[in-house]
Every structure is written in structure tokens, then in C-alpha cells.
């Protein structure tokens, strides 16, 4: 397979994770382990998951994101999903994905705002 | 209805799910589907390919480009020789799942595509056929 690197960068108090355009299942599973490991290592306050490059969000990927977000919450951090494309949002909703409990932001910039000033909350219920 | 082109790709591993997605992406893009429809078709293919891999372990995705009196469409057929679906009606109920999935596979896929047919026989296997027509 082509290399599908997840980029993990700590910016001040936030862990910024960027997903590749079309991640395979192994890459998606790796996301969970790498993110939780980095949470322990870098001790950020929050996690921004940038999915602006992602072209296909299927139920497996969505479930992994929702689960990871829940795990990060358990560890004491907060996750914001940033940059979902319109076509992905339409498809995810029609497919029936809800991603309950996750915070979302239009851009990484807004996600950082949300983590710095956590009101008003934008949690999908 | 005639086929302009057709082909297949085996689904035997998790990597084949990605391979199936790429084939579908290329086909849908070549047919000039809009960006949202491309995403819909790829996502539907991803769900159906994962079903084959998850429930049966091996199968095939057949693809063909359709031409029905000038109407162009993409047809994907997922075929496996697994245990079959005992209760198709139940499998089409939103929220129902027998695997570690989300239970929104088949009903969700139906909403993403224009047409969907399921042929299943217990002990022999399942064929799921979906179609998306190019909107002019």
C-alpha cells in the first residue's frame, strides 16, 4: 500500500492530528493507538482531529473517531473534529452516521478557538 | 440495457476494501459524477466491501458501466459464497447488526444509491447489487 502517514503535532497545549485522504483500516486503527499514546506523552489539554483531506468517511472510520474521542475524554482531554467536507457530511448523514458525543468545528482554526474558549459548546447530541 | 465496460476486483483482505474504493473512485470520476455522488458511491462500496470481508472473508466486487437508452450509470455487484442472510427484512432494518459494525450498513447504503437489490440464499451466499445513475 502507499504510505498513509498520520501527522501528529503538538501545538502549544493542543495535539493536532491530520488524517490522510483515503486511510485504510490499519491506518485508522493506528490512529487510536497513536493518539492515546501521544496524549500520555505530550499531555495536551485537547485534541484536534483534522479530517479536511478525508474524502471517504465510512462507518468503520466514523466509529473509530467516535471511540477515540470517548477514550480521550476518559483520559481527561477534549476532542474536536475539524474540517469535514460538505460531500462527506452529506454522505455520512445519509448513511446514518451520528458521531454522538463529538465536538465539531468548520476549520482547525475554529477548533483551536473551541478548545481555548469552550463556549458555546457544539456537541452532536 | 448494455454494458459499456465491466470488470471485477477480489475482496480477500482489508487492503482490498481500499482497492475497491479506488476502483470505484476512478470509475465514478471518469463518468463525471458530481463530487457528492462520487463520495456517496465510494462510501457505499466501502460499506458493502467491508460486509463481504467481515461476514464471509472473501468475495468479489463486479463493476459495470451501464447505458440504458442514453442514461449512463454505474453498477456494483458484491458477491460472496458465505452463509447468506436468513432474514433480509431484518438486515434492512436501521439499527440491526450481527457484527461489530454500526448496524447501519444496508439501509444506509440504500439511501446513498439509486437502486439496490439483494439476492441471498442461506448456505449458498449473497449478492448485493447497487446502481447510481448520472444526473444530467
Secondary structure elements and their pairing?
The complex is a heterodimer of chains A (125) and B (136).
Chain A: E1 7-11, E2 14-18, H1 25-42, E3 46-50, H2 59-75, E4 78-82, H3 86-95, E5 103-105, H4 108-116
Chain B: E1 2-11, H1 14-30, H2 35-56, E2 59-68, E3 71-80, H3 88-91, H4 105-112, E4 115-121, E5 125-133
Antiparallel strand pairs in B: 1-2, 2-3, 3-5, 4-5
Helix pairs in contact in B: 1-2, 2-4
Describe this structure in words.
The complex is a heterodimer of chains A (125) and B (136). By secondary structure, chain A is α/β, with parallel strands linked by helices. Chain A has one domain (3-116): Transcription Regulator spoIIAA (2-Layer Sandwich), CATH 3.30.750. In chain A, 43% of the residues lie in helices and 18% in strands. A 5-stranded mixed beta sheet of chain A has the order 1-2-3-4-5. In chain A, a hairpin with a 2-residue loop joins strand 1 (7-11) and strand 2 (14-18). In chain A, helix 1 packs parallel to helix 2 (59-75). The radius of gyration of chain A is 13 Å and the shape is globular. The model of chain A has no long low-confidence stretch (mean pLDDT 89). In chain B, helix 1 packs antiparallel against helix 2. In chain B, a hairpin with a 2-residue loop joins strand 2 and strand 3 (71-80). Chain B starts with a strand and ends with a strand. With 136 residues, chain B is α+β, with helices and mostly antiparallel strands. The model of chain B has no long low-confidence stretch (mean pLDDT 89). Chain B has a single domain, classed as Histidine kinase-like ATPase, C-terminal domain (Heat Shock Protein 90, 2-Layer Sandwich). The A-B interface holds A 1, 22, 24-26, 55-60, 62-63, 85-88, 90-92, 94-97 and B 14-15, 17-18, 21-22, 25, 35-36, 38-40, 42-43, 46-47, 50, 94, 101-102, 104-105, 107-109, 111-112.
